[in-house]
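=== RUN LOG ===
request id: a7f3
mode: sequence -> structure
chains: 1
length: 100
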Amino acid sequence: MTEPHRIRLRGHWQVTPLDDDRNRHMRRFGRPRTLDVNEHLWVVCAGLPADAVVTVNGVLVGSGNCSVDITEILDLRNEVTIEVPALSTIDEVLLEVRTM
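=== RESULT ===
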């Protein structure tokens, strides 16, 4: 198996307070143009609190630190959101193109 191509989701995350206890971090991204039929796109979250909630395009895909295949729910333009406790930060979030 070849090493995955990694796309770091850096830059501006929009942060919205949900209430006194939780914040929502949101970032938009485009579908990779060169995704072959043998390739899948995964969202990989590291350094999240255990009660973090991760959604892509409104679909719950994981909680806490997770690595999830999101190929089937991709659109041309996409949105990943991560809900965490208000005093928490998100560490590294990236997309990985993996050959299956």
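=== NOTES ===
The mean pLDDT is 93.
Strands lie at 5-8, 14-17, 22-30, 39-45, 53-56, 59-63, 66-69, 77-85, 93-99.
=== END ===
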